[in-house]
Amino acid sequence: MNRILILSLLVSHLLLLSSVITTPAAAAGSRWKLLQRSIGISAMHMQLLHNDRVVIFDRTEFGPSKLILPAGKCANNPNDLAAGDCTAHSAEYDVNTNTVRPLVLQTNVWCSSGSVFPDGRLVQTGGYFTGERKVRSFGACDNCDWQEADGLLAPRWYATNHILPDGRQIIIGGRQQFNYEFYPKTPSSNNLHNLPFLSQTNDPGQENNLYPFVFLNVDGNLFIFANNRAILFDYVKDVVVKTYPQIPGGDPRSYPSSGSAVLLPLKSPVEAEVLVCGGAPKGAVTQAVNGKFVKALNTCGRLKITDASPQWAMETMPQARVMGDMILLPNGNVLIINGASAGTAGWENGRDPVLSPVIYQPDNRIGTRFEVQTQAAIPRMYHSAAILLRDGRILVGGSNPHPTYNFTGVLYPTELSLEILQPSYFNPEFSNIRPENIVPIPQNKIGYGQQLGIRFSISGKLNENTVAVTIVAPSFTTHSFAMNQRLLVLTRGKVTPIGKSTYQVQVTTPGSGNLAPAGYYLLFVIHQGIPGTGIWVHIE
Hints:
Layout: H1 3-12, H2 14-20, E1 31-36, E2 45-48, E3 53-57, E4 90-94, E5 99-103, E6 113-116, E7 122-125, E8 134-138, E9 147-150, E10 160-163, E11 169-172, E12 179-183, E13 193-194, H3 196-200, E14 213-216, E15 222-226, E16 229-234, E17 239-243, E18 260-263, E19 273-277, H4 284-289, E20 299-304, E21 313-316, E22 325-328, E23 334-337, E24 340-343, E25 350-353, E26 358-360, E27 370-372, E28 384-388, E29 394-398, E30 418-422, E31 445-446, E32 451-457, E33 467-473, E34 476-478, E35 481-483, E36 486-489, E37 491-499, E38 502-508, E39 519-527, E40 530-531, E41 535-539
Parallel strand pairs: 31-41
Antiparallel strand pairs: 1-30, 2-3, 2-34, 3-4, 4-5, 6-7, 7-8, 8-9, 10-11, 11-12, 12-13, 14-15, 15-16, 16-17, 18-19, 19-20, 20-21, 22-23, 23-26, 24-25, 26-27, 28-29, 29-30, 32-38, 33-36, 33-39, 34-35, 37-38, 39-40, 39-41
């Protein structure tokens, strides 16, 4: 299919796409379920791989964990404080069997970053001390373990990674690192590049520009938000293409005044919007260190980053929140979960857990977008995380605001548990409109600008106008930011009956790597805002 025809199809369906992902008219509450009281480590970092297993790790310097390594395996790096520790600080969680397998780390991954390469490997970078220049990889196989090697030009602690259309990842910032680099290295990309924007957004003594929010824009440039402002950056030419207005109020949203952010669902090849929520007021970091925990921010800013003259649109959340996570749900809504209502990120710096998640519905009118969900029983404070699973549930874990594992005599004990949040689309009243039996694509491989027929079944009455197909890139989540998270609404054609309660919907895949970098995605069929279980597809 030629590019002109593809563009014509995309434009012709824009009006349809603006309305297909609807929310159930009478959504009931979400539900919580405890999966494991203890997996032995605290889920500070999490990544779902395409074998439905989750790679989890915390920090080698926490001291001995509750997860024992197999006989004969111990940390043996003489330069690491964990040398001789025969307990694990990383684990592989199998979603299908609810089991945990200990993994071996030889260097410190504390406050590190990562992304999944097109071949499905998690490539993870940086950390603290012995880990600050390391590159680690983990494959999706039955007995895989960490492979670690030197590979970075600068120490990367609190940096952000993003996968690029050419298959490399860019690694941006980190503590006292106002620069970026690429991985893997090539003769033409084996250099360190200065990024003055990072030094300009650094608050002396507080920073507030770590773990910058980075998103690949539809034009191939990078949207980079740090502290209270953002730029559009051409990493190929090493130039700032656009400087965006400061977010109203000017309060910091980046670590350690940690808000969170998402790239809202992409429905068009020429438009993109970013949503930034929560954070802490100016000076909150210093006050928290001195024992005063000020109220977190209760606002979100929404910015159409592709507009010629973009302006922030501000909204008010039901609760103030710092250290929250923002996760894209398969139906295009945004889950805001975890965190506190006072203080900041950092050891012992947060207070007053926010136990109620919130779902933000971006297509609703202002004033009706937020929906408060069922309270959790477990506080998830500093060093907690959340990720989307293939069936549409949210895996939640972590919380350790202490320099060591600490289970008694503290406000918020170290959490080793894993639990699940089931959004209201799992409730029984929606079972007859939930898409099921989604037929896998041959070899689960798809190309760019390709026409696909996706088969599914609905036991109840079909509402054709509400059928949609989305693809989601699973995130590397840590420190209130889900790196590389991305959801695209595929251009939709006809829905055709092909049997009793069985249908086929025609869709067009994204047109380029600027929209969807090559790699593994979860494909979901949505009906009346209710997603079916996803299937893995590989864009190549």
